[in-house]
Amino acid sequence: MHYRNGRLAVVGDRVIGKGYNYGIVAGTVLSITTGCDSCNCVVGFLKTVPIDEHHGLLVALRRNTNGGTSGELNAVVYQEEYTQCDNLLHVDDAWGRAVCTSDPDEEKGDKDDSTI
Asked: pTM of this prediction?
């Protein structure tokens, strides 16, 4: 099985991509089922949700303080997402797509600071 860009998929890889139930997920490949075109991969990930809405294995509690001393109590839960390998990218490959090393306009001095 291979990821979207053709890289070989391996159990234990850290990946990011589209799942079937939770949308975009970032996590660790737990299993790969060869010979299937869809639903051939399971990704485990952590998610923060309000404490009264948590479903899954509770990993930790976190208070959302927004810079203050009190706030809403959230649960950090472990969940698993079903997807297919070609919906995913290894994080090393995704990082190169998501990060811009410099702003071309800024290098030329053409950036208009009034729109920032």
From this structure: 0.71
Distance CA 26, CA 47 (A): 10
Give the phi and the psi of residue 2 in degrees, each rounded to 5. Answer: -135, 150
Q: Is 72 helix (H, G, I), strand (E, B) or coil?
A: strand
Average pLDDT, rounded, for the chain: 80
pLDDT the model gives residue 90: 94
CA distance 55 to 43: 16
DSSP per-residue letters across 27-51 = EEEEEE-TT-SSS-EEEEEEEEEEG
More confident residue, 76 or 10: 10
The mean pLDDT value for 105-111 works out to 48
Token output for 51 = 């404490």
Residue found under tokens 């001095």? 109
Distance CA 113, CA 93 (A): 32
Q: Which of 72, 79, 73, 74 is nearest to 55 (CA)?
A: 79
